[in-house]
Amino acid sequence: MTPPTPDEPNRADLGKDPARVSGMFDQVAAGYDRTNTVMTVGNDALWRAATTRAVAPKKGERILDLGAGTASSSASLAASGAEVVAADFSPGMLAEGRRRHGALPNLSFVQADAMDLPFGDAEFDAVTMSYSLRNVQDPKKALAELFRVTKPGGRVVINEFSTPPAPLLRGFYKFYNGQILPRVARIAGTNGEAYDYLNESIRDWPDQRTLAAWMREAGWIDVAWRNLSFGIVALHRARKPLA
């Protein structure tokens, strides 16, 4: 696939080539948070707060926020006093995160591939991903890598777009993602092509039970989830066995 020129909108697809997906997020980094707030009607802040509560960060802990993007979620975790590593494979997103939150003394930034994390075994008390596991070429490998770098007894929280259980809402959600979301992105001044991909990736993503099964397959135990906003997103939680 020929890479786009710097001025050409980058369009990822469901092949999820890492370079292509990373380049797409580089191009939308500056307006990413603003566009998300508009598209979710402000629910992104509520979902971020729910994720932080689920992680339950504590001072003295070391936490990995993988797929951190512009580090809004990382900054929320760091407010607890925990040492937080904001990791992402998009240098453009990380640069925007540093610009906004780089002054936080307990927040560091690392460019990382979710399928081959540059960390040792059992480094983190908790690991988390928000709306980014879906963009990994091999999400099962990413879940195994998260398991590897988590301390025994440590915890994982995955917040991801999901499948609303109510048929009527599910139908509206598909219509919104397919017809409205890309237009809103373009009005907000963001690469609308990226949000065409977003719709495709959400439509192709498995439901809550399937993701829970993938987590168990990776070795996580006590896997559970709860729906947020009627299942538009789902918050999955689990822990690594002590043995």
Going by CATH, the homologous superfamily would be Vaccinia Virus protein VP39
How is the quaternary structure best described? Answer: single chain
Give the strand tally: 7
Task: List the uncertain runs.
Answer: 1-9
Provide a descriptive summary of the structure in words:
Helix 3 (43-55) packs across helix 4 and helix 7 packs antiparallel against helix 8 (192-204). By secondary structure, this protein is of the alpha/beta class. It has one domain (18-239): Vaccinia Virus protein VP39 (Rossmann fold, 3-Layer(aba) Sandwich). Helix content is 44%, strand content 21%. The radius of gyration is 17 Å and the shape is globular. It has a 7-stranded mixed β-sheet with strand order 3-2-1-4-5-7-6, with helices on both faces. The longest helix is centred in the C-terminal third of the chain and has 21 residues, at 167-187. Strand 4, helix 6 (139-149) and strand 5 form a beta-alpha-beta unit.
